[in-house]
Design goal:
This protein is an alpha/beta fold and 230 residues long. The chain has one domain: Rossmann fold.
Length: 230
């Protein structure tokens, strides 16, 4: 695990985009890129779209999606297309929320991802973190946290009163690298509890089982950290 801190949100977006672009360009082979939803990743995608990256070798996919149509304002698919995908024309595989049942949609997407991951595992996966410690759509005390035999699944989030589609913990563990991206003072408390104290949150559960984890934070999000692992 390594932690990288940047002065401001713009610096964070620029550095994260440069790192991801470098991983893609240095790979010398096809690469899969797992995308997170939310405002913080969106800023990174906008920078990434402007960089000289070998997009022809990239297949992007979503770590999670809300159970809404793809043209809905809350759709991660919509955000990813607007900020990155439609600007670089890389391959993109998104879950089909037009299915009548979220479980069927998750199963269908899991099958599609089997044909996407080279060597059977994701390459780089970008993840956010909520102030409740959730990541992707793995929220505290939801059923998806206990799943061990599904790559992608439907997860009912009672506090949101909605279904989410999400990568499972085992799928995220299998990635070659996870990049957690966080900014703002609202994330400072939970990040300190996870990074300094290893307190049990969904994001901690995901990070603990991964082979390589990089935390990319702005100064406000890192304000309560006592130590910086390298």
């Amino acid at each position: 695990m390594s932690v990288h801190i940047f002065p401001a949100p713009d610096d964070l977006a620029t550095a994260t985009a440069a790192y991801i672009g470098g991983v893609i360009n240095d790979a010398g082979r096809p690469v899969t890129l797992g995308l997170a939803g939310g405002g913080t990743p969106a800023a990174t995608y906008q920078v990434l779209a402007s960089l000289p990256v070998h997009w022809g070798r990239v297949t992007a996919w979503l770590g999670d999606e809300r159970w809404v149509p793809h043209d809905h304002a809350d759709s991660n698919t919509r955000m990813a297309r607007q900020t990155l995908i439609d600007r670089v024309l890389c391959n993109f595989v998104a879950p089909d929320t037009a299915f009548g049942d979220p479980h069927e949609a998750a199963t269908d997407y899991a099958r599609a991802l089997q044909n996407v991951f080279y060597g059977g595992r994701p390459d780089v996966v970008l993840l956010g973190i909520g102030d409740d410690g959730h990541t992707a759509s793995l929220f505290p005390e939801t059923d998806a946290l206990a799943s061990t035999d599904e790559a992608y699944l439907a997860n009912w989030v009672a506090e949101k009163r909605s279904w989410r589609l999400t990568a499972s913990v085992p799928l995220l563990w299998s990635a070659r690298e996870l990049i957690f991206l966080a900014q703002g003072p609202g994330k400072a408390e939970v990040l300190a509890e996870i990074i300094d104290n290893d307190k049990q949150y969904p994001a901690q559960q995901v990070a603990a089982g991964a082979s390589q984890v990089r935390w990319m934070l702005d100064a406000a999000a890192a304000a309560k950290l006592r130590s910086i692992p390298h």
